[in-house]
């Protein structure tokens, strides 16, 4: 007497069933692998973003000095002394290959030469030679921009003829 399980159709069903189970198990394994890859990628991306944010945080400077000395200048220096210290102090601050710039407004004559409108603000390299001191002496705040960047600057503020504030700002990123 033959049973249903002994028939060739039953054997084929059993083989197909076992193959389907293997395919389901393989499919589940692929899903697990894909989930693991995605999770590892997400963790790696989070670690990279965190490391980059840490780098930006540790390299950010926003410092105001109102007593003592900083960046090669001393609070209480007169304008001439600060002007004479500026080339060496800015060279130390800038690093190799960097240049300090200042902002100037173009007057009518220089505006024609530079092809800008009068009173346009330009950045020019700060040479800081003896001939330029009278221009600085008139001002109570001197702003130096490292490599012409508003995100990397040193500002000296004078109260009367004495240096009363040194402000340093540097960030390697731009906020939206």
Provide structural commentary.
With 176 residues, the chain is of the alpha+beta class. 45% of the residues lie in helices and 24% in strands. The strands form two sheets. The protein has a six-stranded antiparallel β-sheet, with helices on one face. The protein has a two-stranded antiparallel sheet with strand order 2-3. A hairpin with a 2-residue loop joins strand 7 and strand 8 (162-170). The longest helix is centred in the N-terminal third of the chain and has 52 residues, at 8-59. The protein is elongated, with a radius of gyration of 35 Å. The model has no long low-confidence stretch (mean pLDDT 84).
SSE diagram, text form:
Elements: H1 8-59, E1 61-65, E2 69-70, E3 73-74, H2 79-94, E4 100-105, H3 108-114, E5 121-125, H4 133-137, E6 141-146, E7 152-159, E8 162-170
Antiparallel strand pairs: 1-8, 2-3, 4-5, 4-6, 6-7, 7-8
How would you briefly describe this protein structure?
This protein has 176 residues and is α+β, with helices and mostly antiparallel strands.
Number of extended strands? 8
Uncertain ranges: none
Order of strands in the sheet with the most strands?
1-8-7-6-4-5
Structural class, by secondary structure, is alpha+beta
Helix content: 40-55%
Number of helices: 4
Silhouette: elongated
Mean pLDDT: 84
Beta-strand proportion: 15-25%
